[in-house]
Amino acid sequence: MAMKSKSTEIQGISNSLYVVKVTFYHIITYIVAGIVFSTLFNYRELYQLGNTAYFMRPFDSASSLIGPVFQLVRGILFGLICLLFRPYMKEDKHAFIKLFLIILAIGIINTPGPAPGSIEGIIYTQLPWQLHVFGLPEVIVQVLAFSYLVAKIDKKTITFPKDITHSLVPAVIAVVCQSIGGVFLSMTVGVDVMSQAGNTGAYVILLAIGLIIFGLTWLYLKHPKWGIQYYLLCYLVLAIYPTVSNYVTDSVFKSPLTLIINAIPVALIWFYLKKKGIRR
Which listed site, 105, 131, 165, 223, has its alpha carbon 20 to 30 Å from 53? Predict the structure, then answer.
């Protein structure tokens, strides 16, 4: 117990907040790396090569739309595991490199099962070489960025400015809620999620939403007198614009429910900023 108290005092944040930060960094790096590399290497065609079509779900399957949702679970698991090594990473100047090498070796190259890009996958599967080669850059870059950010959590000399952190969280809330809302709306209007879910364009839209909410929040922190105007702009981006766009384009997703579903992330953003004492 003495060790735990000392560790908590030195590190400055609770273990629960530490897990939240690790989860947040995983989701952010996962989404950004997915957008960049799926575009560069054309995952839609890559997933149809040879036996890959039987091993991987189609790129335009529901996983493209709800992927960010399940990353919340993965992020929490990463956070709980990293928590075990937290005292060592705090004192180690090379924690970033060591964490990266551990995840790279155990989680990518030397996996127990035959995953793409792993030693077992190369030996025991009939997947085309392109999947092994072109699938690796994304996971390596994502793990590299993730390891760097996690290693920084307890390094007081290199922390994010509060404005950046407080702007990133609403952006993540918006992206995750948009993914969940899209799945719920699909089921509500009777659309087959598996056939209508996202592709590269869906990732780009999610990124655009995240960037816009980040920018609006950043400006709001600089001009707190905006108050209600900030939340109205968030609602315009997350709810009104998608609803109007769906009706104008006669989309299968046109429904007034969009106005209600996409009000949820605005409420969550309001609650987050209130908890941080930023709400005016």
Answer: 105
Alpha-carbon distance of 101 to 89, in angstroms, equals: 13
C-alpha–C-alpha distance, residues 251 and 268, integer Å: 27
Model-wide pTM > 0.70? no
How many CB atoms lie under 10 A from the CB of residue 164?
A: 14
The answer to whether 25 touches 159, Cβ cutoff 8 Å, is no
Tokens of 195: 């056939």
- Opening angle at CA 95, ends 92 and 100, nearest 5: 165
Lookup result for tokens 């290693």: 151
Phi/psi of residue 188, each to 5°? -70, -40
Closest CA to 206 of 23, 28, 26: 28
Residue 235 confidence class, pLDDT cut points 50, 70, 90: very high
Q: Can you tell me the mean pLDDT for 174-197?
A: 69
The Cα–Cα gap between 239 and 256 comes to: 10
- Token pair 């997350």 in the structure block, residue: 238
* Burial state string for 100-115 with b = 16 or more CB within 10 A and e = fewer than 16: beebbeeebbebeeeb
Helix (H, G, I), strand (E, B) or coil at 117: coil
Give the alpha-carbon dihedral of 108, 111, 116, 121, to 10 degrees: 140
Q: Which of the given ranges, 49-58, 65-74, 260-269, has the highest pLDDT on average?
A: 260-269
Q: Where do the domains of the chain lie?
A: 2-158, 162-275
- pLDDT (tens digit per residue) in 45-55: 777 777 776 67
Alpha-carbon distances of 89 from 83, 150, 229, rounded to whole Å: 10, 9, 42
